[in-house]
């Protein structure tokens, strides 16, 4: 818990920091002036912390409306001579891609660092994606930290590299680095230029004429790559087998080599810079190797780039054999290039290539065995699927939409989007949405479906977005709907925060990333400005919401319904909370005929079954006091006592 | 500390405060001169899923994940998650502190899955591990006036086992760096209740 340690100016002192905190600290030590980001896991905590440090460290930090704007802002600051930072997750880099490619061609001035958080195994994402492929398309150098300590050092080095060649530099992180923690040694916070000037003679322009300059810049980095301290080799100087790894995977490889007793014959070459490659360093070690094993997350990026390098120098390094995702030796339980690495997968991969200790290593990975090594049978261990929190307004909203669509009876289609409400694809939201893609995609798809009436399509269409997503990527789709008279309903699940990534503010709110009061934009005003009808309702009033959704479904054209109720996790911090409880004298249990509606159908984690009495009961430690169940219980057995009660 | 490396897993359900517990243990270890590597995920973890933090305390640089079967200590905030984690990472050498209060997964609420019998689950882990402390941590938190203080009770209990040679005052200093005023007082009360329950 190192927010305070971010402030410490004691060079040499060791503190615990997460990867995100270490990058934050590195940027501050480098004299950062300007940071822009749209929140995304696993990198959201960087700008959260920079916002808190803005005043004390004379910097500006912003939650931008989306990643495209964020990267453009960071470039702008760099053009004026200020060191800047743009922080995204892998999906966010896709949003920013057009601008990224262009900014790279035109070049930057002061150091600009792009932190990208990839999420192998998609711990907190809809998908997994290897963003290194995108940085390569954009001609950016890529540094890959393996520990928080290295993340801080690399952030500093990235600024120097960026200024040397006037290209943005990517710091590619994975979840285990960003959210992991470790010892970090503090350095001095450097004084920096904080006086922006856009010089009269400066030009930053995208044009094919600068492609050559871009290649020359990359060639310079390629030369410098060999001298970077982040590429390391551990093992015998003449090892016949070497492992080439990057990021936290390199630590798994070092441990696996020890565990397999191979330290005397296998070397581990850790790449700190993965694009462009440190060619001399790699060739030097491939010369003594006969077998090369690649360990990395997610795609075979190093594997393919190093194999191309080897092909070019084959006469010098022959004979040599490559093992990795392409050969099938390096693979998690789902197959090569799927999911994340861990010490056991890496150990098994090396064991397979070296043909030693394979059986034991296979057993450690296969945790699906009926009885584990620990002696525990798998039977009777139910899965824990993700669900809306107790009291989440989205549960009530999706229940209301489900009910209204059933009343409507025309086989209405619900289109999902990115945020907490993505969970509605699971059982917690009755799997109501039938599509989910990128930020704002539901509204775009709705535009298309809403024009199919000429072909006889008559199913009503609801696109669902969150409040932050509304601003991020939905407004152009609404403009399009108004322009083309597309027929659909947009439901904004407005919980007054960017909840999924940790409750960051967005343009609809009256706070910014630095905690300052600002004038938020009312989304209903935006919609009215487009001359699209807009209604607002409280989803905790389930009956009223069902009626509103039903009524709107009967109208033609584009319309917007805002279901507004603050996130239950924020509301749970309020002091005047009522008590919600089941009056077990009124609950008649399985005689009711409701089939335990509150627990088995509405399935709020706080309404549980009391097997001793055969009646419902509310777990008051879990309950967030939304009181929605009160109006849904057919017996009226759920009661509210004291505190702020919801109007219905 | 039993070996060169102490592998600790803090496990539970999103929202129980496991991340804070692992950060307190890890911070105290760094302040005491150890090399620490922590692996965890958060973000989606708030939404009722299984949450696991790996904390590795040693004198060398290690990766953020513990190999399967190599947990020395499991701090389980919830019985089912303790069992799930023990199954993958536990062994006869593992010591376990388990909060006995269940948090029902969706499948159990939907009446499709059966939540395991807790005394039976406890015995299963006890039979296959070095030692189990079954602790009514949530009840203890409620009794000292902090219903959301289960994580502090569990952290205090971990400290009470003295498996890491780090004094109580180091942890209390970490808490003092994190909280102030009434919140600090309540958290310290829950932490001390956990400490006493085990030592």
Give your account of this protein's structure.
The complex is a heterodimer of chains A (648) and B (199). The relative contact order of chain A is 0.08. In chain A, the strands form 6 sheets. A 7-stranded mixed β-sheet of chain A has the order 3-2-4-5-7-6-12, sandwiched between helices. Chain A has a 6-stranded parallel β-sheet with strand order 16-15-17-18-20-19, with helices on both faces. The longest helix of chain A has 18 residues, at 148-165. Chain A has 22 helices and 24 strands. The two termini of chain A are 42 Å apart. Chain A is 35% helix and 17% strand. Chain A is an alpha/beta fold and 648 residues long. In chain A, helix 4 links the parallel strand 4 (84-89) and strand 5. Chain A folds into 4 domains: 4-225, Thiamin diphosphate (ThDP)-binding fold, Pyr/PP domains (Rossmann fold), CATH 3.40.50.970; 234-364, Rossmann fold (3-Layer(aba) Sandwich), CATH 3.40.50.920; 393-568, Thiamin diphosphate (ThDP)-binding fold, Pyr/PP domains (Rossmann fold, 3-Layer(aba) Sandwich), CATH 3.40.50.970; 579-641, Alpha-Beta Plaits. Chain B has 199 residues and is α/β, with parallel strands linked by helices. Chain B has a single domain, classed as Pyruvate-ferredoxin oxidoreductase, PFOR, domain III (Pyruvate-ferredoxin Oxidoreductase, domain 3, 3-Layer(aba) Sandwich), CATH 3.40.920.10. Helices cover 44% and strands 18% of the residues of chain B. Chain B contains 8 helices and 6 strands. Chain B has helices at residues 18-31, 79-89, 106-109, 118-128, 137-143, 150-160, 168-178, 181-198, and strands at residues 6-13, 35-39, 50-58, 73-76, 95-99, 131-135. Chain B has a 6-stranded mixed β-sheet, with helices on both faces. The interface between A and B is large, with 68 and 71 residues.
């Amino acid at each position: 818990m190192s927010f305070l340690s971010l402030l410490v100016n004691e060079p040499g002192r060791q503190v615990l920091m997460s990867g995100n905190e270490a990058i934050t600290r590195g940027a501050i030590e480098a004299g950062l002036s300007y940071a822009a980001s749209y929140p995304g896991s696993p990198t959201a905590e960087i700008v959260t912390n920079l916002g808190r440090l803005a005043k004390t460290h004379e910097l500006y930090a912003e939650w931008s409306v989306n990643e495209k704007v964020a990267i453009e802002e960071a470039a702008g600051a760099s053009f004026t001579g200020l060191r800047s930072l743009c922080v995204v997750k892998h999906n966010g880099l896709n949003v920013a891609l057009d601008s990224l490619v262009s900014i790279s061609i035109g070049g930057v001035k002061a150091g600009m660092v792009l932190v990208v958080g990839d999420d192998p195994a998609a711990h907190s994402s809809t998908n997994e994606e290897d963003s290194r492929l995108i940085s390569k398309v954009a001609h950016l150098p890529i540094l890959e930290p393996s520990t928080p300590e290295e993340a801080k050092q690399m952030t500093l080095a990235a600024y120097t590299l960026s200024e040397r060649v006037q290209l943005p530099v990517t710091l590619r992180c994975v979840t285990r680095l960003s959210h992991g923690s470790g010892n970090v040694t503090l350095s001095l916070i450097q004084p920096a230029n904080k006086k922006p000037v856009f010089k009269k003679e400066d030009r930053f322009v995208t044009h094919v004429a600068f492609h050559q300059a871009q290649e020359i810049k990359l060639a310079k980095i390629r030369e410098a790559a060999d001298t970077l301290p982040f590429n390391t080799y551990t093992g015998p100087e003449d090892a016949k087998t070497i492992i080439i790894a990057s990021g936290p995977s390199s630590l798994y490889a070092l441990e696996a080599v020890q565990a397999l007793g191979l330290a005397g014959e296998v070397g581990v070459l850790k790449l700190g810079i993965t694009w462009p490659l440190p060619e001399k360093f790699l060739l030097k070690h491939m010369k003594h190797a006969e077998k090369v094993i690649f360990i990395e997350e997610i795609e075979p990026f190093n594997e393919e780039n190093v194999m191309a390098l080897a092909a070019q120098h084959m006469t010098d390094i022959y004979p040599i054999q490559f093992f990795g995702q392409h050969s099938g030796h390096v693979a998690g339980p789902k197959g090569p290039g799927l999911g994340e690495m861990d010490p056991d997968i890496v150990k098994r991969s090396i064991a397979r290539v070296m043909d030693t200790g394979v059986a034991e290593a296979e057993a450690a990975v296969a945790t699906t065995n009926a009885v584990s090594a620990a002696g525990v049978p798998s039977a009777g261990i139910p899965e824990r699927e993700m669900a809306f929190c107790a009291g989440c307004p989205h549960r009530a909203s999706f229940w209301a939409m489900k009910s209204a669509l059933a009343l409507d009876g025309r086989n209405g289609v619900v289109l999902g989007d990115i945020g907490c409400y993505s969970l509605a694809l699971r059982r917690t939201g009755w799997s109501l949405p039938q599509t989910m893609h990128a930020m704002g995609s539901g509204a775009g798809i709705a535009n298309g479906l809403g024009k199919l009436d000429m072909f006889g399509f008559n199913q009503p269409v609801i696109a669902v977005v969150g409040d932050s997503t509304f601003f991020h990527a939905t407004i152009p789709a609404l403009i399009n709907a108004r322009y083309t008279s597309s027929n659909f309903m947009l439901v904004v699940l407005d919980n007054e925060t960017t909840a999924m990534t940790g409750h960051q503010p967005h343009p609809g709110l009256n706070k910014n990333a630095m905690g300052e009061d600002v004038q938020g934009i009312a989304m209903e005003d935006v919609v009215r400005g487009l001359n699209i009808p807009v209604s607002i309702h409280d989803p905790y009033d389930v009956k009223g919401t069902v009626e509103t959704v039903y009524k709107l479904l009967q109208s033609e054209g584009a319309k917007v319904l805002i279901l507004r109720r603050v996130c239950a996790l924020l509301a749970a911090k309020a002091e005047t909370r009522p008590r919600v409880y089941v009056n077990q004298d009124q609950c008649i249990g399985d005689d009711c005929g409701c089939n335990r509606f509150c627990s088995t159908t509405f399935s709020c984690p706080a309404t549980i079954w009391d097997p001793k009495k055969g009646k419902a009961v509310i777990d008051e430690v879990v309950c967030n006091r939304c009181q929605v169940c009160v109006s849904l219980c057919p017996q009226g057995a759920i009661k509210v006592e004291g505190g702020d009660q919801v109007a219905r | 500390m039993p070996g060169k490396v102490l592998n600790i897993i803090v496990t539970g359900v999103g929202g129980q405060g496991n991340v804070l517990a692992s950060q307190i243990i890890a911070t105290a270890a760094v302040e005491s001169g150890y090399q620490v590597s922590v692996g965890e995920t958060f973000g989606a973890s708030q939404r009722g899923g299984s949450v696991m933090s790996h904390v590795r305390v040693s004198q060398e640089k290690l990766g953020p994940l513990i190999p399967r079967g190599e947990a020395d200590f499991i701090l389980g905030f919830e019985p089912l998650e303790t069992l799930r984690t023990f199954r993958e990472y536990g062994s006869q050498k593992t010591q376990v502190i388990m909060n006995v209060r269940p948090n029902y997964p969706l499948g159990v609420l939907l009446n499709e899955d059966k939540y395991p019998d807790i005394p039976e689950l406890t015995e299963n882990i006890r039979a296959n591990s070095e030692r189990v402390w079954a602790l009514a941590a949530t009840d203890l938190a409620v009794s000292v006036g902090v219903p959301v203080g289960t994580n502090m009770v569990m952290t205090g209990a971990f400290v009470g086992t003295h498996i890491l040679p780090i004094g109580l005052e180091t942890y209390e200093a970490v808490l003092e760096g994190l909280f102030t005023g009434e919140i600090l007082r309540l958290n310290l009360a829950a932490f001390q209740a956990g400490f006493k329950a085990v030592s």
